[in-house]
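User: I'm putting together notes for a lab meeting next week and I want to include a structural view of one of the chains we've been expressing. I don't have a solved structure, so I'd like a prediction I can at least talk through. The sequence is below, exactly as it appears in our construct file.
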Amino acid sequence: MAGATTAQRGNPGSARKGKGSGSPKPLKQPRSSGGSGPQGPGVQRLVRRLRHRGPLLLTLLAAVLLTGGGSWVLYGSSWLRVEKVTASGTQVLTPEQVLAAAAVPVGAPLVGVDTDEIAGRVRSRLPRVDSVDVVRAWPHGIGLKVTERKPVLLIKKDAKFVEVDASGVRFDTAAKAPAGVPVLELSAAQSPSGRRFDEERLLHEAVGVAGDLPEAVAKETVQVRVGSYDSVVLELTRGRTVVWGSGEQGEAKGRALTALLKAVPKADHFDVSVPTAPAVSGS
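Assistant: Thanks for the context. Below is the predicted structure for the 283-residue chain, given as C-alpha cells.
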C-alpha cells in the first residue's frame, strides 16, 4: 500500500490517465433568462433609453424648477413689486387727480396688478378722461397715460356751462366758459319741425356741426344757434354770421367757409348751406 502511494506521487501523469482524464473544461457562463443578470438585454435597453431621454428629463426638471422659482420671484419675493406710479397726458386734470382715481396698490406684485380694473376706476371717477392706457414698467413701475375729452360745445345751465364732446357726451360742468368753445342756443320750440326733432336730437346735430368746424373757425365761433334740423347758424367774433343749414356735408362746408374767410376777410355774412355754391355779403 505504501509503494502504490509512493508511485502515484512519483508519476503524477499516470494518475490523470484513464477514464475522465484530460485537460479541464472551461466553465460555462450561465444563460440569461429575459433580462436577468447585470448585463441582460432588459438592462441594456433601459440604459439606452436613459441615454436618449436624459436631456429631455433634464430639460423637464429644469422647467419645473424654473417655473416654481419664477412664480416665487413674480409673486412671493420683494423684487418685482409696485413702487412707483406715474400719470401723463393730462391737460385740464392734474396727474395727482389721475393717481388718486387709479388707486394702484403700491407694494403689490407687479405681475398681479389688474390693469383693466385700474383703467375702469379712472374712467368712472374722472368723466373727463376719454381713455387711459395702463402699462407695467418693469421692474417696479405702473404708467398711466390718459386722453382727455375735448369740449366742442357748451350748454349753458344757470350760471354754469356743461361741456359736451364730439360724441355728444356731457362730461363736466365749468363755472367759466372755456375759451374757443361755442355756446349752444336752441330755439326749436317755435319751429314746425320741433315735434319730429326734439331737443336731444337737435343737440346731437349741433354737436356734429361743431365737431366739423376747422380748428381755426372753431376758435372764432362764439355761438351755435339751432332753430330746426336744417337751420343752423354760427355766430362768429366781430359780429359775423354764417348760415350753415343742416348738419349734412359738414366737412365740405367747413372747407368752403375757411376759403371764404381768407378770400373776403371783411365780410360779415357767409352762407355755406350749399357748399358747392357759397356766398358772402357785407364786404
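A couple of points you could mention at the meeting. Residues 1-38 have pLDDT under 50 and may be disordered. The first strand starts at residue 84 and ends at 88.

User: Perfect, that's what I needed.
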